[in-house]
Specification:
By secondary structure, the protein is an alpha+beta fold. It contains seven helices and ten strands. Helix 1 packs across helix 2 and helix 6 crosses helix 7. The model has no long low-confidence stretch (mean pLDDT 93).
Amino acid sequence: MIPDIEKTIIDTLNLLRINYDYIFTTGGIGPTHDDITAESVSKAFGLKYEIHKEAFKILESYYKAGEFNEGRQKMIWMPNNANLILNPTSGAPGFNVENVFCLPGVPSILKSMLGGLTNSIVGGEPILSLTISLKTVESEIANSLTKVQNDNLDVEIGSYPFFQAGKLGVSIVIRSEDQSKINNCNSQILEFVNKKKIEIVLR
């Protein structure tokens, strides 16, 4: 989370947008004095900050006569040629410039707008996972689990202690895009689990 400080927003965006496929901002595009995200995005990209004509038409028709006041008109100021993200809940659209997507901060409104991004974002392969829960402590499996991880560096393996029915345990979570790699790690983990005679528990 970053504060509503123009330089911080600009510097953060310029750092992140060149290193990541997509950047999402939430909040700061409303009608109040501290809603400075749109203007800051304009400056980050070196674009003119201006009234978006399509956004103007949307909000002009959304509000009753006389309700589209000066404060609400602040929500139609955006970077030049920004692409709108339609808002089915409260009218005021979000926008994107290149790989930066600016959305409102209210969770329910943000959620309602995500469907409109379907054609704008290319998804990656789904991350698959498998969880093995054991009646043990992390120190008992640490060395063996480290060896499995070192032998499978392209698979993410995490261990997470839990407390259930008065007993300690550890859940091992294996994550990868490739099911065969998960299966391979699973076999290696079960091998040392069986050798150590550690009980597998259902959660």
